[in-house]
């Protein structure tokens, strides 16, 4: 409850700052309205919806830190743009690992220094954001790509450390980029597979509903599950599941209409 109250107070602060600035606000100013909260993707979505509801314009934000963040990739949606800008703003105070520092950190990492591991994770967050931006616009929200990339980053640095001398000759930056990129591409493939499966299910649901109506008119009775499956050349278990999904969707539609 206190957390929600704190978030509402932050939104009110956003509104007040925007009103004082011609009903517009910058990313940095938004972040100052939530000083004791690390904003997650859902928080950013709520803030973006609030800006739209209040008619508040998000000021253009220059991608000033171009050391590791590329520009010119596929355009982002409104919410994704807000997430990207706020995350980039958060990274302003985090310096990417330079080659010299990284070499020293790797030596400490392989000797078991946990503080080196933390700095390597922190110093490569820019790299994850760059890769997420590069893979945006392929069916997965940039926030999900960043989350997947950050988890992979932590696991990959741990893997590099545990491998010891076996990977010591391989540049850490290239190793991390390969691992993170593979994880993001796998997430995109998984989402595409899910989308295709959902499309096929929707198509089968439409065929099923049309067949139910057709056979009822032809036979003067409701067709059995076995008859429907035979006509559709599909397993009974699958037809039953499609039927359940279809009726559930229709019930939800009726509730929304009432």
Question: Helices, strands, pairings?
Answer:
Blueprint: H1 2-19, E1 24-25, H2 27-32, H3 41-54, E2 57-58, H4 78-90, H5 99-110, H6 114-123, H7 125-134, H8 142-163, H9 165-168, H10 172-219, H11 225-232, H12 236-257
Parallel strand pairs: 1-2
What's a concise summary of this model?
The protein has 258 residues and is mostly helical.
- Strand element count: 2
Roughly how many Å apart are the termini? 32 Å
Strand residue percentage: under 5%
In the CATH hierarchy, the architecture of the largest domain is Up-down Bundle
Radius of gyration (Å): 25 Å
- Per the CATH scheme, the topology name of the largest domain is Four Helix Bundle (Hemerythrin (Met), subunit A)
CATH class of the largest domain: Mainly Alpha
As laid out across the biggest beta sheet, the strand order is 1-2
pLDDT average, as an integer?
81
> What is the ordering of alpha helices and beta strands?
HEHHEHHHHHHHHH
**What is the SS-derived class?**
mainly alpha
Residues in helices, as a percent range: over 70%
Low-pLDDT stretches: 61-72
Q: Main beta sheet: strand number and arrangement?
A: 2 strands, parallel
Question: What does it look like?
Answer:
With 258 residues, this protein is mostly helical. The protein has three domains: 2-90, no CATH class; 91-193, Four Helix Bundle (Hemerythrin (Met), subunit A) (Up-down Bundle), CATH 1.20.120.1810; 195-257, Arc Repressor Mutant, subunit A (Orthogonal Bundle). The protein has helices spanning 2-19, 27-32, 41-54, 78-90, 99-110, 114-123, 125-134, 142-163, 165-168, 172-219, 225-232, 236-257, and strands at residues 24-25, 57-58. Helix 3 (41-54) packs across helix 4, helix 5 (99-110) runs antiparallel to helix 6 and helix 7 (125-134) packs across helix 10. The radius of gyration is 25 Å and the shape is flat. The model is unreliable at 61-72 (pLDDT under 50).
């Amino acid at each position: 409850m206190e957390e929600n109250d704190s978030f509402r107070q932050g939104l009110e602060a956003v509104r007040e700052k925007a009103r004082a600035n011609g009903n517009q606000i910058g990313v940095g100013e938004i972040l100052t309205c939530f000083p004791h909260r690390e904003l997650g993707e859902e928080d950013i979505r709520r803030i973006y919806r609030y800006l739209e509801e209040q008619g508040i314009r998000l000021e253009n934000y220059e991608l000033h830190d171009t050391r590791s963040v590329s520009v010119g990739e596929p355009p982002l949606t409104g919410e994704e743009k807000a997430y990207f800008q706020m995350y980039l703003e958060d990274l302003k105070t985090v310096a990417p690992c330079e080659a010299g520092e990284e070499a020293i950190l790797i030596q400490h990492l392989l000797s078991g220094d946990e503080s080196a591991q933390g700095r390597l994770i922190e110093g490569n967050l820019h790299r994850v954001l760059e890769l997420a931006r590069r893979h945006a616009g392929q069916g997965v929200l940039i926030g999900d790509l960043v989350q997947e990339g950050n988890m992979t980053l932590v696991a990959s640095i741990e893997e590099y450390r545990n491998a010891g001398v076996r990977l010591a000759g391989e540049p850490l930056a290239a190793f991390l980029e390969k691992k993170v990129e593979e994880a993001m591409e796998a997430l995109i493939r998984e989402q595409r597979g899910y989308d295709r499966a959902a499309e096929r299910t929707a198509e089968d649901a439409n065929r099923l509903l049309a067949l139910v109506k057709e056979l009822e008119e032809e036979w003067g009775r409701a067709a059995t599950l076995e008859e429907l499956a035979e006509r559709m050349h599909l397993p009974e278990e699958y037809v039953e599941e499609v039927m359940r999904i279809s009726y559930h969707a229709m019930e939800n539609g009726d509730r929304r209409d009432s």
